[in-house]
Amino acid sequence: MSLADMRRDYCHGALVEHAAGDDPIALFARWFSDAVDAEVKEPNACVLATVADNGCPSARVVLCKGFDDDGWRFFTNLESRKALDLHRHPHAALCFHWHELERQVRIEGPVSVVDREAVQAYFHSRPRTSQLGAWASPQSREIASREALEETFGSFAAVHARGEIPVPPHWGGFVVHPQRIEFWQGRPSRLHDRLQYQRKTADSSWQRVRLAP
């Protein structure tokens, strides 16, 4: 079968205004809970898009580690490509895709750095091997070989064989503060439901509109 012939009709659900409500954060929480209940693999996985100095975008999958009215949080090496992009151009877009539910959520807005206390709390909740990996990996930079990476990991494992592993100074997190949130529900005949919430500048409330598919 050719790629052009690959298609399916979407008929899992619908997205209507009275059920969606006026609060996009609350709607996201309901949809995220639905994804967890449906046993979607890694429901907190989302695509993060950033932009470089030359205006070229880049995207990668990250794991969201928290969300609330303030925004969506993820953690990373602060010297990685995505982190350098965000430091220079502090705006980002996230896209969650829950295939089993035929749903997407797109989030856009400015970005800020997660405070150090929250970074430390999350870092120490990670498996010990992940903590060591944060020390061992110079993320996004060229390395000599897989063997060299594993050797570095082993060195850090030996140094931190006992006791609490400190948070690397180059490791932290970002929060995407939403200005625009779009909920997408697949529908038959490609007449998908799209509800967009735009934050008003005057009082930080949300304006909801329906978009054509």
Description:
The protein is an alpha+beta fold and 213 residues long. Helices cover 27% and strands 31% of the residues. It contains 6 helices and 10 strands, in the order H-H-E-E-E-E-H-E-E-H-H-H-E-E-E-E. The protein has helices at 17-20, 24-37, 81-88, 116-123, 128-136, 146-159, and strands spanning 45-51, 57-63, 66-68, 71-77, 91-98, 103-113, 171-176, 180-185, 193-199, 206-210. Strands 1, 2, 3, 4, 5, 6, 7, 8, 9 and 10 form a 10-stranded antiparallel sheet that branches. A hairpin with a 4-residue loop joins strand 5 (91-98) and strand 6. Helix 5 crosses helix 6 (146-159). It is globular and about 55 Å long. The two termini are 26 Å apart. The mean pLDDT is 95.
What is the element layout, followed by pairings?
Elements (H helix, E strand, L loop, with lengths): L16 H4 L3 H14 L7 E7 L5 E7 L2 E3 L2 E7 L3 H8 L2 E8 L4 E11 L2 H8 L4 H9 L9 H14 L11 E6 L3 E6 L7 E7 L6 E5 L3
Helix pairs in contact: 5-6
How do the helices and strands follow one another from N- to C-terminus?
Answer: HHEEEEHEEHHHEEEE
Question: Structural class, judged by helices and strands?
Answer: alpha+beta
Q: Overall pLDDT, averaged?
A: 95
Distance between the ends: 26 Å
Strand portion, in percent?
Answer: 25-35%
Q: Which geometry do the CA atoms define? A: globular
**Residue windows where pLDDT falls under 50 for at least 5 positions:** none
Q: How many strands, what sense, and barrel or not for the largest sheet? A: 10 strands, antiparallel
The helicity comes to: 25-40%
Strand segment count: 10
Kindly provide the radius of gyration, computed on alpha-carbon positions and rounded to a whole number of angstroms.
Answer: 20 Å
